[in-house]
Amino acid sequence: MSDSTPTTSTVDPETVIPAPRPGDPEITPEVVEAHGLSPEEYERVVGVMGRTPTFTELGVFSAMWSEHCGYKNSKRLLSLLPTEAPWVIQGPGENAGVIDVGDGMALAFKIESHNHPSAVEPYQGAATGVGGILRDIFTMGARPIAVLDSLRFGDLDSGRNRYLFAGVVKGVGDYGNCVGIPNIGGEVFFDRAYDGNPLVNAMALGLMKREELIKGEASGTGNPIMAVGARTGRDGIHGATFASEELSEDSDEASRPQVQVGDPFTEKLLLEASLELIRSGHIVGIQDMGAAGVTSSASEMAGRAGSGVELEMADVPVREEGMTPYEILLSESQERMLVAARKGREEDVRKILAKWELEAEVIGEVTDDGYFRILEDGVVVANIPALPLTDGCPTYEREGIEGDDVKEARARDLTEFLAPEGDLTDPFLRLLGSPNIASKRWIYDQFDTTVRTSTVVRPGSDAGVVRLRGSRKAIAATTDCNGRYCWLNPREGAKAAVAEAARNLVCTGALPTAVTNNLNFGNPLKPHIYFQLREAVLGMAEACSLFETPVTGGNVSLFNETDGVAIYPTPVIGMVGLLDDVDQATRAFFTHEGDAILVLGETREEIGGSEYLYREHDLVAGEAPLVDLLAERRLQHAVLGMAQKGLLRSAHDCAEGGLAAALAESAVGGEKALGVKVELTSRLAPVAVFFGESTGRVVLSCAPDDESRVLDTARHHGVPAARIGTVGNEGGAFAIRTPLGSIETSVNEVRTRYFGALPALMERTRSEEPV
Amino acid sequence: MKVAVITFPGSNCDYDCYHALKTLGGFEPEFRWHGDRELKGVDAVFLPGGFSYGDYLRSGAIARFSPIMEAVRDFARSGGPVVGICNGFQVLCEAGLLPGALLANESLLFRSYDIHIRVETLRTPFTSAYERHQVLRIPIAHGDGNYHADDEVLAELEGEDRIVFRYVSPAGDLTPEANPNGSAHHIAGIVNESRNVLGMMPHPERAVEPVLGSTDGAGLFASLRAHLEGALA
């Protein structure tokens, strides 16, 4: 710290009134509005301060009371989610949630969005999204072991959407590949509702010994606060406030400076240095300088510890001359950490950072006065009570009314679309070519999936699995959400997302254990959007409670609108599960000719919100598929029981594209393309039987000798189950029949369509525009 | 048998190599930091994969100036076995210990999946445990794996039986679609003139346990162990 810094003991914090800096704009209603604060919120700021804030202080409030940091529109709803269970070590409120996985080990995991930056600059937006979520994991003391990505884009017939998609995939890939964290799964969904407002949610998992858990707390009066890692520049200033606004046509150019730039090499060094630092015992707390940079990390660390902080801006290592305190406080330059070290250990901290070719500078200290105080060359420029800053953000419960357009779409009579009978091979093959159904290999072939030599189930199956080295155990993870269902019925859609995530895990042989969520919605100030948000949280709460999968944290991304049009409500569920024995890991793909094919669960005449309606009739309408949570739970127990008894050769969740798509995926997704012969007795409309998306169904295969044991297990759990067919030979026929309709083709044709669709769509991009 | 695994800033397969050596047994792996100047009495050296120094200039271009690389050069010149995997292969080319260079993949995309390679020669310390023309399934994960050298060098590599692995179809054929990055002559791995320095793009350390989906990489470690046992006996 510079010599000019006064010590905290000589001042009474409440009497310190910072002088305005020369050149600071005057605080006018326009300046307040430009900072995203309402007149009422500004009044509250004045109330907290007991005076007019300085420009620097206003900037600090603007960031901390944005939706991104303050959760002002979602906090009350989020309190409805279940967050506790005996295995939860750390619930919401920290950098990441943490659960006990036995043997003295703990798993940290979290999902976070980088939607707005990715809409403006897809490559850097996505890359820094991965960087941020990795830092959230290793600041808990955990070594990252896997990442997943949940992505949404508009339809790929638009060049702009292909550009965004290709850039995001490359950004996710390059960052994770360079740091050396395997990508083990995720999802992508294309629909015009995401035109102009793609969603980029990244999830990360990390492993630690229980005793290595460290929190983002700045405790111990007099302990030095150190800035660690990359230097601070002018990038990403007010990113948190930007993320809490709607996008417009002009956002593109004007907002570029608010997008951060990532450096995965520095991240890798920072990762190693941080873990070494945490294990050294030289520090008491550490936090990523993420959204709202120094401001949020310092004030949150003080808030959690009930302490205060005093920081000297002149001591912050910067990479540009002449940065103001306002700019330093709000910069979102990447790959930086804030550390509360133990007094007297500053040199030890510097040494560890220097080993990894990084810097660590003392920029202030922990105080006991409860103030967030900022100095510039010894002169106080901001002096704010820390607790109201972090916890005093006004929270709102708003009016929620369902939109008329949704009511209309849901009431739409779909009878006419159920009419087609007979040969439905053509619509089936077209559906396989939809990027929502087709293989996502084009994406994950760009991701390192096997680094760290622990990946047991790679992307492309229902959930990814990584083994825990040195034990028999393994961890599975998945992300899920169908935005169409959530738009038609946010409560049922959110339940469906939780149910599908849990189904994906049990199909992989894992016990669903805990959830991290990413609530992607439009502008909550609009009643129809707030309605979606409230309903979705209620549905999620109900499902997570029943499944005993508490929510340990996550992220809220509101204001996902472009020119006033909102995305589908997209409450993405990231769920983790445990396998006691890695050998129970089950994949989605048929493995042996002659195996029995079974389906669990009930097929109803449901085509509302289906991919079939969207692709064949350009329609998003009808009731979202019904979710029976009790039936889902019985199904989970049954499938898990079968996996644990080793009865299953494959298990696959039946989702978008219905039973026909699920059978196709199981047939061609594995090492060999195996034929399928299925006879169904259902007299429901064949369109619904083949392509309907009834929830709560799983397609299984087992050795013929195990069929009766599988059926017995299903019956024992009260789950409807039937043998529907047989796995055929390599390159053989692919045939599904009901009394009223049929699909007849070869498995090679299925394979060509399934794997060829996405590369063919993206091949157009390379000839059209640079990516 | 002591084996050094070199860690450059940005290496990310150093622990994978370490674990493979530990898991397969018979080796005592030890990390050596890029800033070290000595290998300290090891019997073999691994240069692991990753993005040394971020690979911002050119893959492997900065790592070759690391203090430890002087020691690796001396070790290689004295006949000690050196294995460079992925980024390690790139570093060996940049350091002049192997000929040629690794360009960006022809697709310009990072490629990560299991490929098949054929063992072309058993006359190396790294392949004696395989059978000639045995086909191995092993993961790749790289953006710059397109092996390039001038015709003279390629003729030399061919003529001197120095191409160790080639990308092939599962059946072992040199089909165009089996080549994941556009490498000349389907080259996946080569040795130097004295046959003690191997560079390869695929990751054998990722294919050493059934739970990882393949054990085809284990033969490389078994070959090295047999070689070192013979040399030490």
Textual characterization of the structure:
- The complex is a heterodimer of chains A (771) and B (233).
- Chain A contains 27 helices and 29 strands.
- Chain A has 771 residues and is an alpha+beta fold.
- In chain A, helix 21 links the parallel strand 18 and strand 19.
- Chain B has 233 residues and is α/β, with parallel strands linked by helices.
- Chain B has 5 helices and 11 strands, in the order E-H-E-E-H-E-H-E-E-E-E-H-E-E-E-H.
- Chain B has helices spanning 14-24, 67-77, 87-94, 151-159, 218-232; strands spanning 2-7, 28-33, 44-47, 82-85, 101-103, 111-119, 135-142, 146-148, 163-168, 187-191, 197-200.
- Chain B has a single domain, classed as Class I glutamine amidotransferase (GATase) domain (Rossmann fold), CATH 3.40.50.880.
- The longest helix of chain B has 15 residues, at 218-232.
- Chains A and B meet through helix 8 and helix 11 of A and helix 1 and strand 6 of B.
